[in-house]
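Morning F.,

Quick status update on the modeling queue. The single chain you submitted on Monday has been processed. Sequence for confirmation:
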Amino acid sequence: MPFNILVVYKKNFEDIHDKALEDIRAVLDNLVSKRDIRVDYTVRETVRRSDFIGRNLAIILGGDGTLTSIVHSIDSETPVMGVNSHPREISSDGSYGFYMGSEPKFFADDILKAIEGKGIINSLPRLQAKIETPSGKILVSDPALNDLLVANTHQYQPSKYRIERFADATNDSIDTVQRSSGCLFSTFLGQGAWFRHVANIEGARFPIDEVGERYLFVSRDLPRSERLEDGSYWSWTDKKTVLTSDMHRGYVVSDGWEETHFARGSIITVSMDGPKLKLLTFRSTMHDRVAHWIES
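Structure tokens below.
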């Protein structure tokens, strides 16, 4: 059986991205001529979950937004290789590429390592929400690599809900009613995407043995009088958070892309039970990139 690769790329008719695609296609065409390898290509806008079935490797060409918009459709078994098509070292308006383990100038060496199983495998946890509707129907949100938002679909109206969580190592159990701008949940790595703009946790460091099991939580714009230190305002926890909606319409938003809607009376359970993502890097681990957040 050939080594089966799917390349998903960002197509927006910008020369920098087109050139990156040409460069990696040339490398892959050369490998196909010498090895038992199959390569298929598809644009981000048309890719489907079924396209990843049976693949030995998924290559995502673009930036972090491209990668986070696509990996919702990838299971925990398929390795993912991110290639930054527009690195900041080329242009100041390029992508930082936090999750992108490669870029065109390294691609020829990195793809060989990926094929030969010599890349660094980062097993990244993902958040997921399970929704039980009043009629008993069960919905599951897309897994989130960075963050999940649970909020009123009408952002000009408050998010009203009951919030419950069992006691963890830091806080007692909580069971209270809140009115906020919605609840934001973040993985350890995802805290730099949005969470730190919402909650003031500057200087916080996290034990390395907790970063794969715990997540960050904050109630956005909670009234100041209700911002208690009991875990109901913000917390770093490994316990499931259960929200019972008192909103006419609400939604769960995964990584700012996919929306899963629910009605009043729905029970939303958020946890780290999402399928892990097998992300390849080649010169450093993902944790090396955020060592300043890790407590040694």
